[in-house]
Amino acid sequence: MVETITIVLGIVSVLLAFAIGANDETFASVVGVKRLSVRTAVLMGAVIAIIGGFFLSERVGKTLRDNISPGLFDPTKFPDQSPILISIYVAMAISLILASVFGLPISSTEALVGAILGISIAKGNDIIWGWDGMGKVLITWTTSPIIGFTISFLIMKGVRYIVGKSVRSLRQHEKANSVFGVLLLAMVVWTGLSRAGNDINNAIAPIVPLFSEGGDWYQRIPLLIGGIGLGAGLIIIGWRVLKTLGNEVVELTPESAFVTEGSAAMIVFFAVIIGIPVSGTMVLVSAFIGAGVGMNMPINYKTLRMIGIFVVLTPIISGLIAVGCYYAIRGFF
Amino acid sequence: MIFDKVLGFRTINKQIEEKLKQLSFIPSKYFEALYVECSTRITCHTCDICEVEEVNVRGELLKLMKQGQVDTKTEIEKYQLFQRINEVSKKSKTIRLLMTDHLENMKKENYDKLVILLKEASVAGKLMHYSVKALYDNYDEAINKVKELNKKCNKLIEELIAFRYYDQDGDGLLDYSFEEPEVLIGNSLRVSLQEMINVGEKIIHMIKSLSYNHQEKEVDEEELKRIKEKKKAKQERDKKREKRKTKKEKKKKK
């Protein structure tokens, strides 16, 4: 018999997956350059989210659960799993809301890791700071935006050089746009799969152990419901984000969208394959900046500084909220 | 579905290209037909056909542009180009009306001059069409064509000023009225030519914003200017030296 708290936490994680899906901007570029309509992009994104979440998220989830703070989600070691999980979810939700109030793109991955660290410290559980645990995560967090920027910048310079040499008329320009449009679609599918594999863990990683007793398919239920939650979020609310970003905010050319998405997809996919929880948002933002610099576009350093500050503060704030919440609610369980 | 859409965009782009070229050729045909009509004073149906053709092509283009990617940068640029070409056609229609209405009110000399200018406007229209065509074929060629177009239009506008500021009674004083038929027709023709220049400007703007290495081109042009200036300065210095030498030689001889 499934416990009531498992059902409640399952619903909470689906809602979180729903919220992440609702705020997913992966398909914005392809809508922005009018390669797909909002409806097609949303449906495609939902299917990709379910597939990516189901097949690619396992290793990242394992790192989050077992490699950062081993045993934190083990009911035999810490029987009070309910306040731990609720505190983590509340911390993530508040951090994301805070960032949204300031209008800054922050990473739910960072918020989750920060909450896990906070609870681990509060509970006195060991944290692996070496390469096998947080070391790998921190190095990836630091290097992934730099790599994202560099790859995006270099690809943009290369693309502009090649296209600048070969495109000498409007007809050729339109042909190049068509080619980049097809390439962009491929890149967006790749990014969607990789990000779903990464992001879905932010919603379901903590509750996976609750489904550990059962067959292989029973253990995969959290991945499936996470994927469905992500897809549903994209379909029900996410279309608004795509419409806003794609039609009103993002001014992208097919080649710049291709470069940005391509660079982000490469990095996130690599991180997902080796099982590191990477911030898809940060990678995408850095890739955007790299492409912008490659196109000799001006950069708003003030906003960039604010994003940088929030990147550093997100895990700290999330960790502190998780600890506060844990001490506030543990008496009820 | 996705590939259909991508391929659909490409066929729409091709159709838009054809229609834009067709639309840009109408002013030239129209002015040529108008020249024939005015010089022979026999109603030329080509003008009517051009008017119908212009309306049809404009409608078809609007439909195609709605089907395409209207919001993208390239499509917006193309739509603005389409609007500017439209303006040329709109103004040319009023010239025909004025020419037929004021045929009897004008001096024969002035009328003949205006008829010749209509022929020249047809040539300018052709240059505009070649510029649009070259935009799709080769940016460098398009830049050259636009330069030719600008030269031609500016020359014609200068000639039109003679109608606007003319000395009617020959007393050496400028006496003109904006209600004079020559002035009215001259002004309409001037506006039409100005719209052709605007089309040229739009083409240059499109090349600059869509081409990836236009900045390099600008640098090259600047360098060329500098080289020319240096050459001129050298030539002037050489001339001065020669003059000094000749003066010295003359002095020595003396």
Could you describe the 3D structure shown?
The complex is a heterodimer of chains A (333) and B (254). With 333 residues, chain A is mainly α. Chain A has one domain. In chain A, 77% of the residues lie in helices and 0% in strands. In chain A, helix 1 (4-22) runs parallel beside helix 10, helix 3 (38-56) packs antiparallel against helix 10 and helix 11 (254-274) packs antiparallel against helix 12. The model of chain A has no long low-confidence stretch (mean pLDDT 80). By secondary structure, chain B is an all-alpha fold. In chain B, 85% of the residues lie in helices and 0% in strands. In chain B, helix 1 packs antiparallel against helix 4 (108-137). Mean pLDDT of chain B is 82; it is low at 214-219. The A-B interface holds A 33-36, 40, 160, 163-165, 167-171, 173-175, 177-178, 181-182, 185, 247, 251, 253 and B 1-2, 5-6, 9-10, 13, 17, 69, 71-74, 135-140, 142, 206, 210-213.
SSE layout and pairings?
The complex is a heterodimer of chains A (333) and B (254).
Chain A (H helix, E strand, L loop, with lengths): L3 H19 L5 H5 L5 H19 L1 H10 L13 H21 L6 H16 L10 H33 L3 H35 L11 H4 L1 H29 L4 H21 L5 H15 L6 H29 L4
Helix pairs in contact in A: 1-5, 1-8, 1-10, 3-8, 3-10, 4-8, 5-6, 5-13, 6-13, 7-11, 7-12, 8-10, 8-11, 11-12
Chain B lengths: L1 H39 L4 H23 L5 H29 L6 H30 L1 H26 L16 H30 L3 H40 L1
Number of domains of chain A: 1
Helix content of chain B: over 70%
Q: Supply the number of helical segments of chain B.
A: 7
The ordered string of helix (H) and strand (E) elements of chain A is HHHHHHHHHHHHH
The helix content of chain A, as a percent range, equals over 70%
- The gyration radius over C-alpha positions of chain A equals 20 Å
Distance between the amino and carboxyl termini of chain B: 95 Å
Largest sheet of chain A: none
Largest interface: A-B, 25 and 25 residues
Uncertain runs of chain B with pLDDT below 50, 5 residues or more? Answer: 214-219
Care to count the β-strands of chain B? 0
In DSSP terms (H or I, runs of 4 or more residues), the helix count of chain A works out at 13
- Principal-axes shape call of chain A: globular
- The overall pLDDT of chain A, averaged over residues, is 80
Class by SSE composition of chain A: mainly alpha
State which percent range the strand residues of chain A make up. under 5%
Q: How would you sum up the major sheet of chain B?
A: none
